TrEMBL record:
GO terms for biological process: cell division; cell wall organization; peptidoglycan biosynthetic process; regulation of cell shape; UDP-N-acetylgalactosamine biosynthetic process. Pathway: Cell wall biogenesis; peptidoglycan biosynthesis. CDD domains: UdpNAET. HAMAP family: MurA. GO terms for cellular component: cytoplasm. UDP-N-acetyl-alpha-D-glucosamine binds at residues 92, 121-125, 306, 328. The modification 2-(S-cysteinyl)pyruvic acid O-phosphothioketal is found at residue 116. The lineage of its organism: Bacteria, Bacillati, Bacillota, Clostridia, Caldicoprobacterales. This is UDP-N-acetylglucosamine 1-carboxyvinyltransferase.
């Protein structure tokens, strides 16, 4: 199986560009089902999760063509409302097809989604919201069989601002009769991107980015659309940490600075210099950064859970003791035992990691257990003395495009091999 081999200790310097966001393109690929006209998406990242989502679209009859970083999709020819199990089990975000498929065909069949390395990740809020729009859901033998002859708008109060539930409800409500209001909606930038994409096709969604989203059901045909995916704030954040942890100086291009505000604040707190200009963020690290008193993961605009693991690596070599509390997912410290194998001094107490910074990490063989935890191990390897091998590279490839090429371009010694 593929692995990353890193010879650590090199200071990273130079410039790199961030591509379109995984968490934006995945729901947008589902939203494509809302139209029967051609959709052209620009800056589509070449990621495992994107490839698998394209396979879902193809398996239900859509035609998808990749030309460089563009995807050209013809969704006019849907032949099935059944989302195939094999993809659903592999990628969690496939559950978003439920709302989109219901909007398009009034029915959908899907199994429960996978991707549960970081927690249980139930879908109760998705289903509760859809039921409130009039969807009849039969849950038996591990399948969700859904029918919605005519969805009706309604008022939905989410018990928690779940990103996926917010997206699923928006997708279902776009074609419902009347107005839907989602209270306590998630405010993540990827939801704003979904709203903008839907509106570009002819939908009527407003309020994304705030905690109240209003969807006016639209019955008429949607138009052809060309749309550019927003840059990936988590990939940007990961490169920012790569600069910081190696004491480097890296300019990251194609970033929306507002989307990485909480990451910038924490990097500055650790002693990094961060300059922001237009769509560029420049991060200068130091060999020994300062500990951060407390990082608590929170829904946007709070500190993202998807950056928690990378900061655990960073703080493992900072001067002093840092505390990180993970409040979103219950099993998201699986990178910690691997970091400890590299010489980090970290103790887990429930949902909190207590990190006593050490002067150096030592390269060894470690195993990625999930996407961001895997990226965190690569970051630790960039800093460590000697050679680090990160096994299970496929986890990392779910969310990072040619990570070894990007990092080599700014001075890292990293290759991907077939173990
Ligand atoms: C493809 C995608 O966009 N993935 C992101 C999305 O995941 P995802 O959409 O799965 O995350 P959610 O916001 O839904 O989950 C947040 C929390 O709510 C819980 N929950 C969620 C739904 C539900 O019906 N019931 C329930 O209890 C989850 O178990 C979790 O503890 O947001 C997460 C939180 O920012 C990110 O880490 C993921 O990268
Ligand atoms: C948890 C993540 O993704 P997913 O929701 O697709 O598993 C992530 O991007 O860090």
């Amino acid at each position: 199986m593929a692995q990353y081999v890193i010879n650590g200790g090199r200071r990273l310097e130079g410039k790199l560009r961030v591509g379109g966001a995984k968490n934006a393109i995945l729901p947008i690929l589902a939203a494509v089902l809302l139209t029967e006209r051609q959709v052209v998406l620009h800056d589509c990242p070449n990621l495992l999760d994107v490839e698998k989502t394209i396979l879902i679209l193809e398996s239900i009859g859509c035609k998808v063509k990749r030309e460089g970083r563009d995807l050209i999709i013809d969704p006019s020819t849907i032949t099935s409302w059944v989302i195939p199990d094999c993809y659903v089990r592999e990628i969690r975000s496939s559950i978003i097809f439920l709302g989109a498929m219901l909007s398009r065909t009034g029915k959908a069949r899907i199994t429960y989604p996978g991707g549960c390395e970081i927690g249980q990740r139930p879908i109760d809020l998705h289903l509760k919201g859809l039921r409130q729009l009039g969807v009849l859901i039969d849950e038996s033998n591990g399948y969700l069989d859904c029918v919605a002859p005519q969805m009706e708008g309604g008022i939905i109060h989410l018990d928690y601002p779940s990103v996926g539930a917010t997206e699923n409800i928006i997708l279902a409500a776009v074609r419902a009769k009347g107005r839907t209001v989602i209270h306590n909606a998630a405010k993540e930038p990827e939801i704003v991107d979904l709203q903008n994409f839907i509106n570009a096709m002819g939908g009527n969604v407003r309020g994304a980015g705030t905690n109240t989203i209003v969807i006016e059901g639209v019955q008429n045909d949607f138009r052809e659309v060309e749309y550019t995916i927003i840059p990936d704030r988590i990939v940007a954040g990961t490169y920012m940490v790569a600069a910081a942890i190696t004491g480097g100086d890296v300019l990251i291009d194609n970033v929306i600075p507002e989307h990485v505000q909480s990451i910038i604040y924490k990097l500055r707190e650790a002693g990094c210099t961060v300059h922001v200009q237009d769509s560029c963020v420049r991060v200068k690290g130091k060999y020994r950064l300062r500990a951060i008193e407390h990082i608590k993961t929170l829904p946007y605009p709070g500190f993202p859970t998807d950056m928690q693991a990378q900061f655990t690596s960073l703080l493992s070599v900072a001067r002093g003791t840092s505390i990180i509390t993970e409040t979103i997912f219950e099993n998201r410290f699986r990178h910690v035992p691997e970091l400890v194998r590299m010489g980090a001094n970290i103790r887990i107490d429930g949902q909190t990691a207590i990190i006593h910074g050490v002067r150096s990490l030592k390269g060894t063989t470690v195993v990625a257990k999930d996407l961001r935890g895997g990226a965190a191990l690569v970051l630790a390897g960039l800093r460590a003395e000697g050679q680090t091998i990160v096994e299970n590279a496929f986890y990392i490839d779910r969310g990072y495009e040619q990570l070894e090429v990007a990092l080599s371009g700014i001075g890292a010694d990293i290759v991907k091999t077939n173990g």
